[in-house]
Amino acid sequence: MDTQGYLDMELLRFTTAGSVDDGKSTLIGRLLYDSKSIFEDQLDAVKASSEKKGLQHVDLSLLTDGLRAEREQGITIDVAYRYFATPKRKFIIADTPGHIQYTRNMITGASTANLALILIDARKGVIEQTCRHSFIASLLRIPHLIVCVNKMDLVDYSEEVYNRIVAEYKKFAATLDVKDIEFVPISALHGDNVVDRSTNMDWFKGSPLLNTLENVHIGSDWNHEDARFPVQYVIRPHTDEYHDYRGYAGRIAGGIFKPGDEIVALPSGLTSKIKSIATLDGALEEAFAPMSVSITLEDEIDISRGDMIVKKENPPESTQDVDAMLCWLNNKSPQPGAKYFLKHTSNDARAVIKEINYKVDINTLNKLEEDKSVKMNDIFHARLRTTKALFKDSYKHNRITGSLILIDEGTNETVAAGMIQ
Amino acid sequence: MKSYQLSHLKELEAESIFVIREVAAQFEKPALLFSGGKDSIVCFHLARKAFFPANIPFPLVHVDTGHNFEETLVYRDNLAKKYGAQLIIGSVQESIDSGRVTEEKGYNASRNVLQTVTLLDTIEKYKFDACIGGARRDEEKARAKERFFSHRDEFGQWDPKNQRPELWNIFNGKKHIGEHFRVFPISNWTEMDVWQYILHEKIEMPSLYFTHERECFVRDGVIYAHANVIPLKPTEKVEKMQVRFRTIGDISCTGAILSTANSVEEIVEEVAATRVTERGSRIDDRRSEAAMEDRKKSGYF
Questions:
Q1: Which of A81, A191, A239, B251 sits 20 to 30 Å CA-CA off A342?
Q2: Do A169 and A122 share a structural domain?
Q3: How close, in Å, is residue A106 to chain B by CA atoms?
């Protein structure tokens, strides 16, 4: 493999959600198999397991079930991550189960994705589950959706069926906030329009799925406008060579930073200039999301973990009152007045859920203003009050500075994921 | 117009450095588990980048099975010396001598399972609350379900059905006394990524990864290094072979591959062409379909 080519490849993270029968595992198996990402010993193991189960064909879905309980019960319990690459891009698949009780897994998989694959069974058209997956993708602000109308072989590769489903989906999607939606008719089982163009659907003028995955423009998925640098760790070498060195280490969450830039440190509000952007490989002329760097300043000001270095223009809002869409991830429902640990970028606080405004029916997207009893997998709009100010953006503008989690103070479990409004 | 787009290796590097810094920030007594294999070498390199120009603020921990390749130990000691890293060694031999574990018997005896006890004892002795490891999700199907921050209970156990959800890059390292975390910064890297990165960063590698002539024998289709810790069956013949190792564990559970790859470039080409997973030559994974899951549940790395 060409090394320079390899170094130039981009990374695309995508998520798939689906239930047992819609062919999701077969599609992933097909992508891995046709892109030659499955090794012989893995395939041998899957063949042996398929025979053991008395199946006539090689069940590619067995490739994706990692835990003993999953293989025994034939279900996917948890998010599994898969990897494959083409000469153009490396792909990370967050493969999540699609049942309603697994909303929390879908949200987990969606949280880091650039793109979501939505699978529709051509025989069934747009169903409740399609809406649920699409809604979660839009809620988590996944910038790109590809709707795969699967099992086209079972509807005689009919253009009419496909067009009807596309129209049906577009009508529904008008209520969602997703800009980029592509459609492709496929048969995961037979490989039509997955990697290779199908000869059974000459009427389809678009690209096969893999081609679309390789070419979706992801360069503008990060926020490069609003400068945000959450300080993660302070580097103090205490050596003779670097006696007074004080580097603020972190991962850029937005914007572009350059030496000489005037900055403001939050919460102190103190100002300074960037002296250098240091890495082991040498100083950088500029740095942008999602790079991990360390920044030194011209002036010695007091900055520690949880603080944020920003610029004067477009600072984030500092507030203790946070409105957010929350997804509840835990068996134990939120108790009125209960306090939680809150994590937001590198900042820690405590928070109380002041008010639950409404729940969302994730199948119809209707607001439920009467029923405010929250259970696991529920999505609801709430107001939080925090013990100290968060430096926040809306999730819409920045997925890093606009997201938070809540942690139960007794069990230490992560109980909620929050998208700040 | 200028493109503000990182290449995939740079993005993976940035993610890993973020995770490593998060460990230093969230835990009181972290450590880096160092086996001398390529993945832990890459983790060490990333940790150097994470804290530059300071030294890595935690020690390296090596669980020495007593069945290690000599080359691994030499490499380990040189690395620690060169970069001024503190090295802590947990000894499986000591665990055996003190009666904490019982050595397996027979031709296929391995100390791989025993090292879990030594690892947990070492964690307890030094009160480590987070151990960074070089495991990758693409290695093995149980590992595909692993979190970056993997919670372990007071018995060091992994409960795969009850893992904490891990959203965005917000890592929850909260724990009760006696519990600890395993943290896997290169979760999202593949074997190819690791080698391409080693090539690009010009990281010095142990000689075992490159082709060499070695006395070997074949058992169940696996090429073993001939060593006095693996008793030969009467029918097994030792012969000189041109081999290298694709993974490095202890002698009794690491298979060699026939190869003439003499440089990182050649290894990259070989990895690109290979049709078998790297753990295919790991005897420890061949014990059963859920071998890795079972070991991980009981506290294995």
A1: A81
A2: yes
A3: 10
The verdict on residue A221 lying in a domain is no
Q: How distant is the Cα of A386 from the closest Cα of chain B, in angstroms?
A: 17
Residue showing tokens 């270095």: A309
- The number of beta carbons lying within 10 Å of the beta carbon of residue A362 is 21
pTM for this structure? 0.91
B25:A232 CB<8 A? yes
Contact call for residues B225 and B251 (beta carbons, < 8 A): yes
Which residue type is seen at A193?
A: N
- Total domain count, chain A: 3
* Residue whose tokens read 């059963």: B288
**Count of Cβ atoms closer than 10 Å to residue A75 Cβ:** 15
Point out the residue among A11, A237, A417 whose CB comes nearest to the CB of B54.
A237
**Closest partner CB to A81 (pick from B25, B144, B193):** B144
Paired tokens of B207 = 């000689």
B165 interface with A at CB cutoff 8 Å: yes
What are the chain A neighbours of B160 within 8 Å (beta carbons)?
Answer: 67, 78
Strand B180-183 and strand A262-266: the pairing is: unpaired
Task: Please report the ipTM that was assigned to this predicted complex.
Answer: 0.91
What average pLDDT does this structure show over B91-112? 75
Q: At what angle do helices A128-139 and A103-111 cross, to 10 degrees?
A: 40
Q: Is the same domain home to A282 and A358?
A: no
Say yes or no: A283 and A415 in one domain.
no
Q: pLDDT tens-digit profile of A112-147?
A: 999 999 999 999 999 888 888 898 899 999 989 999
**What number of CA atoms fall less than 13 Å from residue A259's CA on the CB side?**
10
Specify the DSSP element, H or E, that contains A358: strand A347-360
Superfamily name with CATH number, domain B8-193+290-297 = HUPs (3.40.50.620)
Contact predicate B111/B92, CB 8 Å: yes
How far is C-alpha A224 from the geometric centre of its chain's CA atoms? 18
The answer to whether residue A223 is domain-embedded is no
Both tokens assigned to A281: 């490989």
Would you say residue A57 has pLDDT above 60?
Answer: yes
CATH of the domain at A369: 2.40.30.10
Q: What is the least distance, in Å, from the CA of A227 to any CA of chain B?
A: 14
Q: How many CB atoms lie within 10 A of CB A248?
A: 24
CB contact (8 A) between residue A403 and residue B277: no
Asked, for residue A220, whether it belongs to a domain, the answer is no
State the number of CA atoms in the 13 A half-sphere of A13 facing the CB. Answer: 18
Tokens 């300071």, residue?
B54
Residue among A151, A38, A28 at smallest CA distance from A80: A28
Domain boundaries, chain B: 8-193+290-297, 207-285
**Could you tell me the residue range of the domain that residue A357 belongs to?**
317-420
Is the sign of the CA dihedral B109, B112, B117, B119 positive or negative? positive
Q: B45 by DSSP, 3-state: which?
A: helix
- Determine contact: B175 vs chain A, CB below 8 A: yes
Tell me the per-residue pLDDT of A255-291, one tens digit each, with 9 for 90 and over: 999 999 999 999 999 999 999 999 999 999 999 999 9
